[in-house]
Amino acid sequence: MGALNAARQTGALVVANLRFWPTVAPAMWRSLEHWRGATAQIDDPALRSMALEKLRREAFNAEVAATLATLAPPSQRQQTTEAIVALEVLFDYLDGRTEQLTEAEDPTAEAQRLFGAMTGSLRADAAGWKPAEHDRDGRYMAGLGGYVHERVERLPSFGAVRDSALAAVVRCAEAQSRLHASARLGDQQLESWAREHCPGSGLEWRDYVGGCASSVLAAHALIAAGANPGMTKLEASAIDDAYLAIGALITMLDSTVDESEDLALGQPGHIRLFTKDERGEHAGALARLALDRCSQAPRAAHHAMTLGGVVAYYTSHPGARAATARPVVAAVRAELGTVARPAFAVMLGWRAAKATRTRIGRT
Fold first, then answer.
1. pLDDT at residue 1 in the model
2. How many CA atoms lie less than 13 Å away from 289 in the CB half-sphere?
3. CA 80 → CA 103, 106, 133, distances in Å?
4. Average of per-residue pLDDT across 329-340
5. CA–CA separation, 311 vs 323, rounded Å?
6. CA torsion, points 56, 61, 67, 69, in degrees to nearest 10?
7. Which distant-in-sequence residues (6+ apart) come within 8 Å of 211 by Cβ?
8. Which end of the chain has fewer surrounding CB within 10 Å, N or C?
9. Closest CA to 336 of 283, 298, 274, 278
10. What is the pLDDT of residues 92-118, one digit of tens each?
């Protein structure tokens, strides 16, 4: 892993910041503001309120995803940012929307129909996804999907990455649909699906579920790759493999730091699939796998930096100090301590600044 040492991560972090603030951040902020205004297209007041709340509370997801646009050449950076932000906004909205399908006759099928707005955005068919007559948010979702489609189709190498990007959003939709249906249908349907599809992924079924659930990040990375002329299908596949493993680690860490809150709400998260004794071992293995796959992908240092940022974000989260989280955090830090160190220092500063702004806002 010599190619992915701390010096390389620091260099990648510096380059990303030099590109992000003057070129990506302005396009990202404009895009988020545009989609806040677009929520007026949602006819149902409750769904409109949810869309606005998602944008308020989860804008950070789009901000993090947009950092991948720093991999695009300057001439492609704005439309790459716009595509990534719109796809993330759509995913976050669908995540909330499909959680509400408790009364649907077939919640899995209905969730997958709605997620068609996301999967359709990356298909070659320009017709895209069509909302049903009863969808009171159909214009909003179709607008987001169409916006993504318009922009990715202009990218010089999107044809080379399309298959991998589409596979990523399809498996993401499948996993999210089945995870949300588990409250009503149980985990057996989730396990059966994952066991059928995980062979060849290098992940066991529970890690595969986690990787798929976060695979929108793989799509973001592939959109950024598609902005670069000369990208090949083999390179796209390597990027997708890396982000499947990164996504599995993201889902595990996210569920770990939120475990107490989720249990209090009666909504046990993904971490419920693992016994307490095996969590640390699984997390460490995922971290090793993700780092190894990053080293095999083009622009390896940037992808490893993204992995380091993920680890820094979650291991500096207040929930990481919980007794149940410590074995997971310790295992991941043991595997990625050097790689995550630059991002961890940045993340501690970001959390401190955020806490200061919150305190000032209350005075």
1. 42
2. 23
3. 37, 36, 32
4. 86
5. 18
6. -90
7. 201, 203, 244, 245, 246, 247, 248, 251
8. C
9. 283
10. 999 999 999 978 889 999 999 999 999
CA dist 346 and 18 (Å) reads 15
CA dist 120 and 260 (Å) reads 36
Which tokens is 200 given? 């060849």
At 151-198, the pLDDT tens digits run: 999 999 999 999 999 999 999 999 999 999 998 999 999 999 999 999
Separation between Cα atoms, residue 315 and residue 335, nearest integer Å: 13
The neighbour count for residue 53, using CB atoms within 10 Å, is 12
Q: CA 170, 176, 178, 181 torsion: positive or negative?
A: negative
Question: What would the pLDDT profile of 112-142 be if each residue is shown by its tens digit?
Answer: 999 999 999 999 987 779 999 999 999 999 9
- In the block, tokens 């989730």 appear at 190
pLDDT tens figures, 5-37: 667 778 888 899 999 999 999 999 999 999 999
Question: CA torsion sign, 68 to 179 to 94 to 46?
Answer: negative
CB 284 within 8 A of CB 344: no
Query: Amino acid identity, residue 357?
Result: R
Are 81 and 27 within 8 A, CB to CB? yes
Separation between Cα atoms, residue 356 and residue 22, nearest integer Å: 25
pTM for the predicted model, two decimal places = 0.95
- CB environment 259-279: b (16+ within 10 A), e (fewer): beebeeeeeebbbebbeeeeb
At 291-309, the pLDDT tens digits run: 999 999 999 999 998 998 8
pLDDT bracket for residue 352 (50, 70, 90): low
Return the HEC string of 323-359. Answer: CCCHHHHHHHHHHHHHHHHHHHHHHHHHHHHHHHHHH
Phi and psi at residue 330, to the nearest 5°: -60, -40
State the Cα–Cα distance between residues 104 and 290, nearest whole angstrom: 37
> Reduced to 3 states, what is the DSSP secondary structure of residue 204?
coil
Q: Could you give the maximum distance between any two Cα atoms of the chain, in Å?
A: 56
At residue 10, the pLDDT reads 81
Which tokens go with 315? 């291991």
